[in-house]
Amino acid sequence: MTIADNFTSVMNRIAAAAKRANRDPLSVRLVTVTKTVSIEGIREALASGAEILGENRVQEAKEKIEQLGSSAGWHLIGHLQTNKAKYAVKLFDLIHSVDTLELAAEIDKQAAKIGKLQDVLIEVSIAGEAAKAGVALDDAVNLVKRAALLKNIRIKGLMTMPPYSDDPEKSRPYFKKLKELSAIIDRENIPGVSMAELSMGMSGDFEVAIEEGATLVRVGTAIFGERV
Ligand SMILES: *Cc1c(COP(=O)(O)O)cnc(C)c1O
Prior knowledge:
It is a single chain. It contains nine helices and nine strands. The protein is an alpha/beta fold. Strands 1, 2, 3, 4, 5, 6, 7, 8 and 9 form a nine-stranded parallel beta sheet that branches. 42% of the residues are buried.
């Protein structure tokens, strides 16, 4: 299977999952995860129709963006260190991984410096594992309310990453919880906050995520093969 074949197959599976859930396939966007993938590999994905590329490290993304330009949208999906926020606001259309007020404030400050309104998602740790990234479920509403006061960031929704499992059904309760949280925050009508986006689902579980309401699925391995 070539990258082009894999890409088409993932797009077809996205459309089929959306149909099963009585959703418009266009309401789900694919973030093609290109971490560790070569420039040639990424070019193949772009030629196949990839519109959004996801990277999890700022430095790696910077090198690729310098070579590929903005032929696609670039999303930061991995953890962001506060001291890299300055570069992140220059490079990314959407940052999926805001999980502390300190990070939100730094992104806001750096975005203000370059006159940008930076779109972000709040990353939530549903499982509450201490070592994992993401704000705890119980603290998420409070973080959204406080981050919403920052003028140069715009909250567009939520992101989560369930604990790893071979069984996609194991992810379903986490996706349901994120969707519930998104509805709770939506009902708060916090000025400037949108809950339009739900970033959830990876190669192993994106179809379940779509059934549970994902609007952004982040898929790498199913397109490029196992990372080395
Ligand atoms: C690597 C990564 C993905 C993609 O994972 P695959 O299993 O390769 O599809 C999605 N989200 C995040 C945050 C990642 O770091």
